Amino acid sequence: MTDIVDSRKVSVMRDVVTGQFFFSVRGQNHGDSDVYTCSFHHCSCPAFHKQVTQSKQSIYCKHQLAARIAISLNKLKIEELQQNQWKEMLNKQAKQMPVPFKQKNG
Ligand SMILES: [Zn+2]
Questions:
Q1: Are 103 and 94 in contact (CB under 8 A)?
Q2: Where are the domains of the chain?
């Protein structure tokens, strides 16, 4: 758990205009491509989908915990996104996310 935090794998992507943010947490197993997008309520990883959404065995996945720990330890890397970058990111993430994470269009 803490190894995710200690190697500074948690970033905050923040929209400079609205101040909205989400966490980008790099996984441990599959290199740089294994990056999940979390908020306090959702994560794009398969474990969240299985253990939290479906079976309700857990309240959080390890990425969400890592994000919370990173906040409390002040070990976050903050990346400011311009509006167009933010939209691109959301579009990209929406495709990767399982159904419960999809935002309603509107
Ligand atoms: Zn996760």
A1: yes
A2: 2-101
29 burial (CB, 10 Å; 0-12 / 13-18 / 19+) is exposed
Cα of 82 from ligand 1 centre, angstroms = 25
pTM of the model: 0.71
Q: What whole-number distance in Å separates Cα of residue 23 and Cα of residue 46?
A: 16
Q: Distance from the CA of 42 to the center of ligand 1, in angstroms? A: 8
Would the pLDDT of 95 be above 90? no
pLDDT digits (tens, 9 = 90+) for 26-85: 876 655 567 888 998 899 899 999 999 999 999 999 999 999 998 898 888 888 888 888
Structure-token match 């309240």, residue found: 59
User: How far, in Å, are 2, 11, 12 from residue 7 at the CA level?
Assistant: 9, 11, 15
Ligand 1 ion local residues (Cβ < 5 A):
36, 43, 45, 48, 61, 63
